[in-house]
Amino acid sequence: MFRPITKNLCLLISAFSLSACGIIQPYTAPVPQGKEIKDKKLFEIKPNMTKSEVTYILGSPDIIDTFNPNQYVYINTYKRNMQDTQFSESKLILTFNNQDRLIGISGNYAPPTKDPVF
């Protein structure tokens, strides 16, 4: 008499347990990496600044090329979560001359067009 009830109960519990595996997704935190450069700080960078002045404003660069030490690279990547295959990447490349003066700014960080609003 208890045998069919136990069997049906086990089947019911198994069905509910297996169906719960795909319904609820666990929370995964966003994954930012690198330095996020605000427009306010980017606005402070001017041509002819020294390496130490740029480092004081933006912080130390993420990459200093071994073969070209006159180039600083700041990279920022952002993924919404670990399972997400798409991510956004921002890159700022600063080029200096032999006297350690800033001569070029490139990358996909857009330079601000006017004073930032506080």
UniProtKB/TrEMBL annotation:
Secretion signal, residue range per the UniProt entry: 1-20
Record's bilayer topology term: Lipid-anchor
A Pfam family of this chain: BamE
Locations listed in the record: Cell outer membrane
Classification via Gene3D superfamilies: 3.30.1450.10
Keywords from the UniProt entry: Cell outer membrane, Lipoprotein, Membrane, Palmitate, Signal
Chief location: membrane
GO cellular component: Bam protein complex
A biological-process GO annotation: protein insertion into membrane
Location of the Outer membrane protein assembly factor BamE domain: 34-102
GO molecular function, one term: protein-macromolecule adaptor activity
Superkingdom: Bacteria
Protein family (similarity comment): Belongs to the BamE family.
Subunit (UniProt): Part of the Bam complex.
Function according to Swiss-Prot or TrEMBL: Part of the outer membrane protein assembly complex, which is involved in assembly and insertion of beta-barrel proteins into the outer membrane.
Record-given protein name: Outer membrane protein assembly factor BamE
